[in-house]
Amino acid sequence: MSTIDIKLEGQDNYFVQESFKFIRTNIQFCGADIKTIAITSCNENEGKSTTALYIAKSFAELGKKVLLIDADMRKSVLAGRNFKMNVSAGLSEFLSGQVKDAHSFLHKTTVENLHFILAGVYPPNPAELLSGKNFDSLLNVSRNSFDYVIIDTPPLGAVADAAIIASKCDGTIMVFGSAEINRKEAQEVISRLRLSGTKLLGAIRNNATTKSGSAYGKKAYYKHKSSNVKKVTEEDDESWKKLFPSDNDK
Ligand SMILES: Nc1ncnc2c1ncn2[C@@H]1O[C@H](COP(=O)(O)OP(=O)(O)OP(=O)(O)O)[C@@H](O)[C@H]1O
Ligand SMILES: [Mg+2]
């Protein structure tokens, strides 16, 4: 099993670490049965991959055994951005049956307790692969071997992958990268998420830097400035109440 050297992009400063400790604690209070967690968003560039990595790292630093899976096989950025190594096999090769030996696609990292599965080569049929039994068996084995399995996904608004992944996970976290949430769009994708049957654990407001253009064929709808990760959603947040009325009725 090779070791991946993690280089975090951006500032891994005190405030970021404290934000993710807060998020980590909120996840823990969701229940001990919440082990496999999908991280998704409405659109691209909202901060899913960054959030997934920081949540995984935060749990690992707590001494939890964590597996981070890059399931954005269409546009994997985690490997190139955060890790300095060439890796031959990843999720797509395992799901398509080309690779069976776990040692060839499961990697240790320089963060103690944090393991990683890379996305692999862009396959022609990501949604089909994620719907298959190999992904089910990977999740089952991972659930038994790790305390937490954090899964980075493509945006819900663009492709079906995230809803498929969410349907197989114990819970899902939405990342909102815009300070001003597009309520209608958010409600649409959340309805889609709910149809998948996943448990919506909450949302993270992350004012991520946006980029022009789209790798998913859908133009980003928002424009805003970057700032550090702010907070996990709070019950007293009016935007949250509007977006998730049923959650607030409970
Ligand atoms: N809180 C933040 N502050 C500043 N920059 C951020 C923050 N969160 C993310 N970014 C930056 O914004 C960009 C997009 O983030 P990231 O790749 O995590 O988004 P994503 O939702 O995974 O995108 P995609 O949909 O393309 O997979 C990256 O360059 C990342 O470093
Ligand atoms: Mg991403």
- Total helices: the number is 10
Low-confidence segments: 217-237, 239-250
- Order of neighbouring strands in the sheet with most strands: 1-4-5-3-6-2-7-8-9
**Number of E-state strands:** 9
What string, H for helix and E for strand, traces the elements in order? Answer: EHEHEHHEEHHEHEHEEHH
Termini separation comes to 46 Å
Q: Which range best describes the helical content: under 10%, 10-25%, 25-40%, 40-55%, 55-70% or over 70%?
A: 25-40%
Rounded to the nearest angstrom, the radius of gyration is 17 Å
CATH architecture: 3-Layer(aba) Sandwich
Strand composition percent: 15-25%
Descriptive report:
The protein is an alpha/beta fold and 250 residues long. It has one domain (9-249): P-loop containing nucleotide triphosphate hydrolases (Rossmann fold), CATH 3.40.50. It is 36% helix and 17% strand. It is built from 10 helices and 9 strands. It has helices at residues 14-28, 48-61, 78-82, 91-95, 126-131, 133-145, 161-168, 183-195, 238-243, 245-249, and strands at 3-4, 36-41, 66-70, 107-109, 114-117, 148-152, 171-176, 200-206, 229-232. A hairpin with a 4-residue loop joins strand 4 and strand 5. Helix 1 (14-28) crosses helix 2 (48-61). The longest helix has 15 residues, at 14-28. The protein starts with a strand and ends with a helix. 43% of the residues are buried. The structure holds adenosine-5'-triphosphate (ATP) and magnesium ion.
